[in-house]
Amino acid sequence: MSEPGHIFVYGTLRQGSNHPMARRLAAQARHVGQARATGKLYDMGWYPAALFDENAPTRIIGDVFALPPGDRLLAELDAYEHGDPNYARISLDVSLIGGGGILAWTYGVSAPPNARVIPGGDFLTHWNAKNRRPMRP
């Protein structure tokens, strides 16, 4: 099986985030569209944690980007995400909001963190409602 050429992001890297790594991703990769995956999204403060579970009744909302050729951007994203040792890069089938599915890299946790579940599974909506200002961690 070949490696995914896409990445599914659901937190600070999403389109609409003003985080510097989100801007880097948007500048170097092509936005494919919004997508969702089954699982639970947790509020870790200024970032979320995702526990992917194909049997979960809840969904995680995010964006899919087509990665550029080479491993440089993915290595930069790995370095950014691995600031927390509980995260691991995994491949995952996600559903595009407009229809269809795609295999993508993403970052998730292997056990539920000690944190609140984000209702609706959309971190940016949750962040903006909680903070009443655009995301700028």
TrEMBL record:
<feature type="domain" description="Gamma-glutamylcyclotransferase AIG2-like">
    <location>
        <begin position="7"/>
        <end position="123"/>
    </location>
</feature>
<dbReference type="Pfam" id="PF06094">
    <property type="entry name" value="GGACT"/>
</dbReference>
<dbReference type="InterPro" id="IPR009288">
    <property type="entry name" value="AIG2-like_dom"/>
</dbReference>
<dbReference type="InterPro" id="IPR013024">
    <property type="entry name" value="GGCT-like"/>
</dbReference>
<dbReference type="InterPro" id="IPR036568">
    <property type="entry name" value="GGCT-like_sf"/>
</dbReference>
<protein>
    <recommendedName>
        <fullName>Gamma-glutamylcyclotransferase AIG2-like domain-containing protein</fullName>
    </recommendedName>
</protein>
